[in-house]
User: Which sequence fits this backbone?
């Protein structure tokens, strides 16, 4: 055991909260900090250890808090700094850790720094952002998310210059090349760490370094800007500096959102000896069902289980000696896990939701669950544009309108792909609006809270998705081999069943996960099922299993301890 580099953030299970959608207590239809505090006993009862809280800072909400206008204030809709301090104190009492969101690639255009920066070319804050003086002509093309013209340069009349915004026009990019900007970010991090915050998830962190000569985009990146954005010349220098000056001074965790980072670059971020980040989220799975470089368009054919396995096997291998990985199936930017990777039909919803939970909790790498995943919340499938609230959907709609692209196709796509699928309110009970609010919710509640997908009813059923989740979390936490053990793929070619072993010293486990709507038989030569201990299954185990064969029901998950 001595050789294991044990850390709390490797052994913990993370629960992500999108505060806008979790629990409203003020009656404005928007979730708030007090709502989270009220629900801490529930969160603790899940067995999770760490809460990742999406941004709660002051923001005009162009991108729901990912556009920050003051890093040291709480968004009025969510409450006050006293509410925050109370939440943190109540979490500490329960032994829960808090990870915040660091959104520092960009600020809001309403941030004081930007307000100053745009005033004049010689303003003290001018160099906090990326400006291109118009007398140099039109700046070299940069692509933007959420921009109605997909253009990352916005002309600003006041100083006859363009500013850079990789996201919406209201999210100007900070200029990390300016040491004063970095010092501001580090001071702000210290402010939160000194309050007792336990870490940060770092929003689009690979984008922070830019070539400030703003050259024409190299040919190989035409059509796909992301790898160019995520590989700026001074990226690792900045991460290392941030680690040296701030992160290393505290017992905290960091997890980067690593858009555009490829597997051969992985260790540059998380190899402990390099002193940068602890972990990051890769995007390979999140692109598996998407159309090439089109991050928000679904691909036309169905993804294959062998592709899914290959992604996870490759990413497990890269961290087997150094660094540490993450496991996630959804978050606030992607559709719900059970609708996307499982099967949310009436018949298969329960088994596929619990099967996917089993997957995350039996892989190496810190598991991240997104609120509602523990009760199997599904996609919203909004049919009407009016129901969508996300700037990503709304502005892409406008862009396509200009290009005369079929908007019905677009809505069909958004039903599967939109971020709003994951942003509908938490389904607490059978009360109006699922117990989320007593007012009109800011975004529609999924009506399936009435048909079993709510906490109140699932609490009462011993075999509910919720209670399975609790059991499975306990199993992970009480078997070190499921956390640190080596991973080995079994049956690599099988398109119905994902099978693997985990082993640590003498501990050995076999995990069988059916991704199929049919019953499926597997045969594994060197496993004798009759001699193995069943730790958990989300369905009855069929008795006809013989020594080397096992029949899995649709979406069945089983975890065996082997001897
Ligand atoms: C990240 C966030 C996303 C946000 C974007 C811009 O991808 O997860 O929600 O829109 O960055 O901050």
Assistant:
């Amino acid at each position: 055991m001595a050789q294991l580099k044990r850390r709390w953030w490797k052994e913990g299970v993370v629960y992500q909260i999108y505060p806008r959608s979790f629990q409203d207590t003020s009656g404005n239809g928007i979730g708030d900090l007090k709502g989270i505090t009220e629900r801490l006993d529930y969160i603790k009862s899940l067995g999770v250890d760490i809460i990742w809280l999406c941004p709660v800072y002051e923001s005009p909400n162009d991108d729901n808090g990912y556009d920050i206008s003051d890093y040291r204030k709480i968004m009025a809709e969510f409450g006050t700094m006293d509410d925050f301090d109370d939440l943190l104190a109540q979490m500490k009492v329960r032994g829960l850790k808090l990870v915040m969101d660091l959104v520092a690639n960009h600020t809001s255009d309403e941030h004081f720094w930007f307000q100053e920066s745009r005033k004049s070319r010689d303003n003290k804050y001018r160099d906090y952002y990326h400006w291109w003086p118009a007398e140099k002509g039109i700046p070299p093309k940069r692509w933007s998310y959420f921009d109605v013209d997909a253009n990352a340069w916005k002309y600003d009349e006041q100083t006859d210059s363009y500013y850079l915004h990789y996201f919406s026009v209201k999210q100007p990019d900070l200029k990390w090349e300016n040491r004063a900007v970095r010092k501001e970010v580090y001071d702000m991090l210290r402010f939160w760490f000194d309050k007792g915050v336990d870490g940060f998830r770092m929003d689009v962190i690979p984008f922070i370094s830019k070539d400030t000569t703003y050259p024409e985009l190299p040919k190989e990146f035409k059509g796909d800007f992301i790898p160019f954005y995520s590989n700026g010349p001074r990226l690792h220098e900045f991460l290392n500096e941030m680690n040296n000056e701030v992160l290393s001074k505290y017992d905290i965790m960091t997890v980067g959102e690593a858009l555009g980072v490829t597997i051969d670059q992985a260790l540059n971020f998380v190899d402990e000896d390099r002193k940068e980040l602890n972990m990051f989220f890769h995007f390979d799975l999140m692109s598996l069902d998407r159309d090439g470089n089109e991050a928000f368009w679904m691909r036309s054919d169905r993804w294959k289980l062998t592709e899914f396995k290959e992604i996870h096997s490759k990413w497990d291998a890269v961290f087997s000696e150094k660094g540490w990985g993450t496991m996630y199936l959804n978050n606030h930017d992607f559709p719900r896990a059970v609708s996307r990777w499982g099967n949310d039909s009436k018949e298969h919803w329960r088994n596929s939701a619990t099967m996917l939970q089993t997957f995350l909790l039996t892989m190496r790498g810190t598991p991240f669950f997104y609120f509602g995943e523990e009760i199997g919340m599904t996609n919203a499938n909004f049919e009407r544009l009016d129901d969508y609230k996300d700037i990503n959907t709304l502005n892409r709609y406008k862009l396509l309108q200009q290009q005369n692209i079929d908007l019905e196709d677009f809505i069909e796509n958004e039903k599967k792909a939109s971020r709003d699928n994951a942003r509908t309110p938490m389904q607490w009970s059978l009360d109006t609006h699922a117990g989320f609010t007593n007012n009109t919710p800011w975004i529609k509640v999924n009506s399936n809270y009435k048909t079993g997908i709510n906490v109140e009813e699932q609490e009462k059923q011993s075999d509910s998705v919720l209670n399975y989740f609790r059991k499975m979390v306990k199993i992970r936490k009480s078997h070190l081999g499921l956390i640190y053990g080596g991973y080995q793929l079994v049956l690599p070619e099988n398109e119905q069943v994902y099978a693997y072993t985990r082993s640590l010293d003498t501990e050995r486990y076999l995990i069988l996960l059916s991704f199929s709507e049919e019953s499926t038989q597997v045969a594994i030569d060197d496993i004798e099922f009759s001699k193995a201990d069943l730790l958990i299954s989300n369905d009855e185990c069929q008795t006809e299993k013989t020594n080397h064969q096992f029949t899995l029901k649709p979406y069945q998950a089983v975890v065996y301890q082997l001897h």
About this structure: The chain has a mean pLDDT of 96.
